[in-house]
Amino acid sequence: MAREYPSAIHLEQMSFEDVGAALAQGYTAVMIPLGAIEQHGPHLALSMDADHADALGERVARSRGKTLVAPTIKVGCSAHHLPFPGTLSLRPETLEAICTDYCTSLAGHGFKRLLIFSGHIGNFPVIKGMLDRLRASVPPDVEIVAFTDSTLWIDTWRHAVAAAGGDPLAVGGHADIAETSLMMAIRPDSVRQDRFEAGHLGALTQVQLELMWKNGVRSISQNGIIGSPIGASRDIGEACLAAIADLLVDTFKEQERSTGS
User: Fold this and answer.
1) What is the number of alpha carbons within 13 Å of residue 196 lying toward its C-beta?
2) b/e sequence 125-139, b meaning 16+ C-beta within 10 Å
3) Ramachandran category for residue 165: left, alpha or beta (phi over 0 → left; psi -120 to 50 → alpha)
4) What pLDDT, in 10s, does the model give residues 29-59?
5) Which runs of consecutive H residues, i.e. helices, occur in 29-110?
6) DSSP string, 210-243
7) Taking the complete model, does pTM exceed 0.90, yes or no?
């Protein structure tokens, strides 16, 4: 007798029979989370972006319903962090090849909607650049959508931090009050609160952004922090996690409406 759809929503935790049963019951959407293994200042683990992607993938899938979660692609494009020991970085073409293989595998099993997002903002331009090629790699009845708006992501963090009682000016986008608070909510054991220190404060100018992409994060922040972790808390982390999850859910719903899916 076929089992009812199991409580697990992570593909890697399911048997092939579980996945087949889920597909038969209409679970034809899959989240594909991307992360990074890169420096996050002296106070956070290298896994921050991958851990964030794991947490978001589960939350968004459960909110959407009838959605599974593929294994997080943990290593991303992090060349601008390589001067810091431990950082791993894929070439953009390597990340694209992995994403292509994910998409073609999932499409081959009958999944019809593949939802890509990244817990690492540095992956956004790479995802945006590969999206048309990913779509061309799967049958026309399979839809691939992705979130790639870094400005909206950062603004959402700022609003969430302010609403939770934190300083929105401490949001810089990397190892800052938002990311540090997220890790206090997701993996509190990995946060070294005695190592909190400010990094580059204030919005990055276009010149600074270009310098960072060309010469690495150390060219604008010696400690690898953009923003400040000072004032981080679990409550702020929960607010940021909920706000970005809602942003992803709403964005994917809007894309569904625009395509008539």
Assistant:
1) 17
2) ebbeebbeebbebbe
3) left
4) 999 999 999 999 999 999 999 999 999 999 9
5) 48-64, 92-108
6) HHHHHH-GGGT-TTS-EE--TT--HHHHHHHHHH
7) yes
Both structure tokens of 211: 């310098």
- The strand ranges marked E within 167-222 are 171-174
Q: Which residue has the tokens 């996690």?
A: 241
- With DSSP H G I counted as helix, E B as strand and the rest as coil, what are the percentages for the chain, rounded to 5? 50, 10, 35
Residues in contact with 214: Cβ distance below 8 Å, sequence separation at least 6, in sequence order: none
Q: Is 163 left (phi over 0), alpha (psi -120 to 50) or beta?
A: alpha
Q: Are 244 and 156 within 8 A, CB to CB?
A: yes
State the residue for tokens 């909206």. 152
Please give the domain boundaries of the chain with CATH numbers for all domains.
11-259 (3.40.50.10310)
Q: Which residue has 């679970």 as its token pair?
A: 27
CA angle 241, 247, 248 (to 5 degrees): 90
CA 225 – CA 250 distance, rounded (Å): 30
Residues 220 and 226: their CA atoms lie apart, in Å, by 8
> Which tokens sit at 165?
């009682």
Give the C-alpha separation, 252 to 1, whole Å: 35
Q: Per-residue pLDDT for 194 more than 80?
A: yes
Residues in the chain: 261
Model confidence pLDDT, tens digit, residues 132-155: 999 999 999 999 999 999 999 999
